[in-house]
Amino acid sequence: MNWFIDAHEDLAWNMACFNRDYSRSAYQTRRAEQGTSIPPYTGDTMLGWPEYNQAKVALVFGTLFVSPARPGSLDARDNQIYATAREANQLTWNQLGSYHRLCDLKPHAFRMIGTQSDLNAHLARWQENQPGIDGQGYLPVGLIPLMEGAEGILSLDELPRWWDAGLRIIGLAWTGTRFSGGTREPGPLTNEGKALLEAMAELGFILDLSHMDAAAAFQALERYEGSIITSHANASRLVRGYSGNRLLDDDLIRAMIERDVVIGAVPFNNFLQADWAQSGGRQTISLSMLADQMDYICQIAGDANHVGIGTDFDGGFGLQSSPKELDSIADLPLILPLLRARGYSDLEIESIAHGNFLRVLQSALPQ
Prior knowledge:
The protein has 367 residues and is an alpha/beta fold. The protein has a single domain (4-364), classed as Metal-dependent hydrolases (TIM Barrel), CATH 3.20.20. It is 38% helix and 14% strand. It has helices at 11-18, 26-33, 38-42, 49-55, 85-105, 116-127, 159-164, 191-203, 214-223, 250-258, 288-301, 335-341, 346-364, and strands spanning 4-9, 57-64, 67-68, 81-82, 110-112, 141-148, 169-171, 180-182, 185-189, 206-208, 228-230, 262-265, 307-309. Helix 1 (11-18) crosses helix 5. The chain is globular and about 50 Å long.
């Protein structure tokens, strides 16, 4: 069965900012938000529980994302902005709590995954097609928390609390943090960042290199002793009009592959063609460009074992900034025939859809 792992979705941020209910259909959410200030700000949602099931998205890495106060960043619709590490800490804990509440209140729709036992039981349910108690025949979606930017970690002494609360993946940066250079704010690992990596490895956290500046990412690849992913990033070489430090140069991709890193390709128009909005709009961006990104990484690797999918859907963009073939996450399977047309076997396609990220989880999650 071709099912999917989506390695990056900002669900908690959307729940906090816009009160989005991901147990309902994306189309219900769109109708409810029509005429409000939400779609012009962040786009029409791509996500909903029925659509997850239609696409067979069985597992999602749900982020804990709060943004630093920077010039131009303050907006009344975004209540997840911090000015201090303590504010980041409180907001991030609140977001993790929102995932637990979602799973506790709606277990038919979402389940928290923190261990191998949780993972195996959840996937067995999907394989046996055991729907939830909703009466609609839909299966629950597994949630694995991912901290996007580590500014919410006040001290290394707090890390075990995060682990015990279900956090399993940490990325050190979004913009620059006190741990690492990041998007638009380049720089290497700091001493605090090096100490955080050491403490993360001792507990068994998966490291996410997304948003880390290349200098910091190269250092992390050399230093980190645990499992590493890049939840959502594309190859910069294929992105027309791109400049910056957010996407991946070839030398960094090669270094990631050497460390058996799985890279989640992103169907975000800005990461497929930087000047798309000025060069014909959404109708010029095809899902085939995402397949090109996947194929490019596979060609560098010489195999199909190092790429997956990290949609970043609802990550500050929505339908309006997604490839023209996509109306919601329900359309994600449209990527599969594009890979098949490029010569990928059924086994290789299965690896890209879920197998590669599943391999990381099976090696990194505790029993």
